[in-house]
């Protein structure tokens, strides 16, 4: 085989080999892009669920909810307030 034919064959095989490598890398990148999108969708869904759960927690722990649960358990509100008031002034006038 002559030298120019050998160089031409080598270059053509190199181009084919590099094209196959490029196709393989592009395929892996596109697949990983889909995986990243799926993971981002899952993260968005979990964040939305987290917000819903926070709202439910705030609703359950609100004062009205606590008061109604206390009434169901038999707790009663205080009927009369106890006020302690002294008639002695702090300083006596002279």
Structural summary, described in words:
The protein has 94 residues and is mainly α. It is rod-shaped. It has helices at residues 3-60, 63-73. Helices cover 73% and strands 0% of the residues. It contains two helices and no strands. It has one domain (3-71).
Describe the SSE topology.
Blueprint: H1 3-60, H2 63-73
Report strand %: under 5%
Sheet with most strands: none
Tally the structural domains. 1
Mean of the pLDDT scores?
Answer: 85
Number of strands: 0
One letter per element, helices H and strands E, the order comes to: HH
Structural class: mainly alpha
Defining key terms:
single chain, 94 residues, mainly alpha, rod-shaped
Question: Care to give the gist of this entry?
Answer:
The chain has one domain. Helix content is 73%, strand content 0%. It contains two helices and no strands.
